[in-house]
What we know:
This protein has 117 residues and is an alpha+beta fold. It has helices at 6-23, 58-61, 79-89, and strands at 31-37, 44-51, 93-99, 102-110.
Amino acid sequence: MVIGAIRSIDQVFTNIINNAIDAMADKGGELSIQIDKKKDFPDFLEIKIADTGHGIPEVIKDKIFEPFVSGRERGTGLGLAITKRIIDAHGGMIEIESYTSGTIFTIALKFATKENK
């Protein structure tokens, strides 16, 4: 178990997975999710969501978590901004690696303990 509001955390994964599906819409691809303890922060659960889509354009990669920044023609640019705010509000971490062959989002959320439930 991790610390978090279920609806907010659900929104995080919905945003990232929907973006991955959109990135693979033209040619298909694979979506994978890996869950493990975070090696350098053992009090955190690490979730990696990877896709084999087209990747995030280089020109927006550094701004991808800012509002109104989108790599899609019809995107609002709010999904990943909201995702980052939710993760930050939960004391978590989110990182992104993106290449022309896909994108990996790494999310870390603190494990729940008796003291912080």
